[in-house]
Amino acid sequence: MHELLLFGQVPTSRHDQLLKIIAGIAAMQPQRVLERHLIFKPSRKSGPAGRKVGGSQGIQSSQMQALQGQMHGEMFYMQLVGEVREDDFTTLDAAPPQAINGVGTKADVQMTSGIEEGERGTTEPYSASKTLSLAEGYHMDKQKWALQFNDLPEVAGRRPVTSRMISSIDMVEGSAMQFMDNYVSEYILEGHQVIHNNVMLLLHRILRFPPSQEQLTGPYNRLHDLQGYPPVDTSGAYVLQASVRLQDGNRPESISLGLNELKSMKKMMKGVVELEPGDRLALDTRVKS
């Protein structure tokens, strides 16, 4: 799937005003968006070295050459994205949420047990029944995830928008954590969304986990009060993202239709918020070696 994007920054003081404006443009009530994003860094696993032989036996097929090229190509950060509700953010005066240890290292997932204070770092095989018995409310094992990939945007100049390949796969059953390696961090995406024709308008900001809750060994099993997650932008500003998704980005007529709709939206929002292409390097998802 292909995605065309424009971005605009909105100060906190104008958030409510802009929300009403985009709701009027789309002729619909803004839909609340709350997403939990887990970021994972893939690692390159070296395969067994093949025994080199002489003659024609050492010539690789075109399929093998293409496969090896992909295996030694660039790697990209991956995300698990799950929709959450405001009710999932508990206000209980409890210890910081426990983190899952050893994410994706073995088929038997290891995680911390209990949420009592002072139990950080103790691991045992994951038990869904034990976790569910700890407390009611949000738990990692009940979260539905989608595996999300965003490619490096195309070089600016070809089109007056940010253009990139994207992919999202819903994890319908099983534990996605068993297959994810090298947990990096996580954040909360908070905002509202409306749709006008084929343009999706997302007014949002990124919330980070408080320093007292940062844990590099794995994602947290529970969530705390939403008000305790500070925005990445300390000014509290929001970002208005206008996007069009194309099923086939190789069809010129689809690209032209998407571009025209974004241009029309940019013209409509002129004087309200300036929509511009994003910084390509700021949207770079490649793993730096």
**Helix- and strand-based class?**
alpha+beta
Write down how many β-strands occur, each being a DSSP E stretch of 2 or more residues. 10
**Strands of the biggest beta sheet: in what spatial order?**
1-7-6-3-2-8-9-10
H and E order: EHEHEEEHEEEEEH
Considering DSSP H and I runs of 4 or more, what fraction of the residues is helical? Answer: 10-25%
Q: For the report, how would you describe the main beta sheet? A: 8 strands, antiparallel, barrel
The count of helical stretches stands at: 4
Radius of gyration: 22 Å
Mean pLDDT across residues:
79
Into which percentage range does the β-strand content fall? 25-35%
Ends: how far apart? 27 Å
Shape: globular
* Poorly predicted sequence stretches spanning 5 or more consecutive residues: 93-98, 101-135
Give the SSE map.
Layout: E1 2-10, H1 15-26, E2 31-40, H2 62-71, E3 78-83, E4 110-112, E5 123-125, H3 128-134, E6 146-150, E7 162-170, E8 183-196, E9 199-208, E10 238-246, H4 252-268
Antiparallel strand pairs: 1-7, 1-10, 2-3, 2-8, 3-6, 4-5, 6-7, 8-9, 9-10
Descriptive overview:
The chain is of the alpha+beta class and 289 residues long. It has four helices and ten strands. It has helices at residues 15-26, 62-71, 128-134, 252-268; strands at residues 2-10, 31-40, 78-83, 110-112, 123-125, 146-150, 162-170, 183-196, 199-208, 238-246. The strands form two sheets. Strands 1-7-6-3-2-8-9-10 form an eight-stranded antiparallel beta barrel. A two-stranded antiparallel ribbon has the order 4-5. The chain starts with a strand and ends in a 21-residue tail after the last helix. Residues 93-98 and 101-135 have low confidence and may be disordered.
